[in-house]
């Protein structure tokens, strides 16, 4: 269990360090010249040893000896002959100081001073210091000393989970070793080195002392543990990241931004990762322990990331979060209400691994970022807009119509999510061909199984970009999410299907993450795919599809001279008002064209699963040569007000056939109804230890009452997360909440709030507060 002190035993005798001071205590016995030394039996020798005062030698002069007898040079009488015995006091360890203070050299140099608690938290591949207090000064000529560290339930030297650390004269890189760097009386300071491949986790420490004579060793168990983390600052560590600003962002930043919505209406919410918060490191180590991954595997970041991907969801291993896309969260917390990983991880740990309800993709991603950064693996949350979910490994997103061009719902198992959030993590990939290190995609949202478990990744982003889907792990699935073509099929009269249309730019848009050093959005689409339509991008798609279940899908090119596109004005429709879009139909030929567009708008979960259609209509369109027509499309508020689900997302599907050429027109556009933000205004000076306030204001955008409104408020270094039950909020009413709190940490801080109720989700806000020392 986290925090439990491991009992470490061992009597191995390894290594010594020469050059220490000579012995300072001796036992001196003087015999008179000519006297014969009396022999004594074994029993008497034993009894005399146990109680010398009761059983003194006869005919000899004896000097009482204790552990603290100081050596003084006696006079040398001529008639006497002296016999020295080097029976020195046995060396033992009185105490161990791991020098684990947050402000001390160890945690400052290892970039672990932000973690809560007073354990020694260090990063592998880097030296650290400790001090030993001995019962007497260390003598390198006669004393031996070594360290033992152990991790896991069954430590083994062969597995790297029991490490015997010898004393050496000079430290060398890439191995466990210790060197005495300072001696002061009975105190010894050690510098200890660890290899860059060391197992990550919780270690128990013991110190063993003995003599060169081979006497029985004594072992002292430290009452504090050592936590070993990955080291992005160490060039030899496979998670090394060669940019200090990126290390600050992807390892040390405890807040971030997660993007959601649609590609034309990108929303952003602040997320508290809180990887240094009280109890979070313990929770992360608990997750590794609960995963049943052998501790010996915890030195490889590929293994660790793969296990974390599986353990963040509870689908098949009682992991951290239960996924729920039903809309009913009455027995838990709505996914949209979370704005921090802290409460989730602490709750999971405190209940001994009871999964927390509920999460969706951005929550899974936020918690994954927290765990990976906490363990020392650079990580970020990444949002892909128009994210495909390929269910049959075809590496295409397939849409099926019947002979009348109506969607065949039971066949349309592939879906395109408005957005999907996963993670990138940074590491070398020595298990793959050169060039596939760097950013790796990992997804903790339970979608498809990988080797029998709901997990995904790590998949090389470079391999995804080039279509090398045969490289592990789960590269085909991620490739389909970002760069699959959308293929439309129509059922023939004989029951077979023919490809009638393809969209080559339908998925993988505006792939986004928080920028380094700012709250701006960084578009990283170019890392995942070549420029849309370029020869490199087409080659990547066709390369990938050759390894899919429909390798011949590109054998029939289609001729097209009429296009249909849906456009949105500004930031798009707002919740509580009529939704208006523009349908643009363009004739690119020198001949007239006629078609009838079938339109259907359906309420949609953000995962791309349709709930139900709420409006259908047909629109005849006649186009002159090279003409472009714009059709205004309207969805009244009354038609959607009682139909919406999470994210307030809708999908407009258009289909039709050009009469003159039989060309098929098809388009699917997703959009969301934008919700208002919470307005947070700080009140008063932000000073450590001094009370201040913040006003949170919300205006209901709907003409109806919101039932059971709850605010959730949290600010790392400002106040702990908590709920505020507001109750009902009338139509178009404004509610103001004033929060009073006392900042506990200086520097830039973020106060984050979210609103949760059944009728309205994804309402949140953030205030930046700079706290100064008193």
UniProtKB/TrEMBL annotation:
This is Protein-glutamine gamma-glutamyltransferase K. GO terms for molecular function: metal ion binding; protein-glutamine gamma-glutamyltransferase activity. It is a lipid-anchor. Its main location: membrane. It comes from the Eukaryota. Catalyzes the cross-linking of proteins and the conjugation of polyamines to proteins. Responsible for cross-linking epidermal proteins during formation of the stratum corneum. Involved in cell proliferation. Its EC number is 2.3.2.13. Belongs to the transglutaminase superfamily. Transglutaminase family. It catalyses: L-glutaminyl-[protein] + L-lysyl-[protein] = [protein]-L-lysyl-N(6)-5-L-glutamyl-[protein] + NH4(+). It comes from Amphiprion percula.
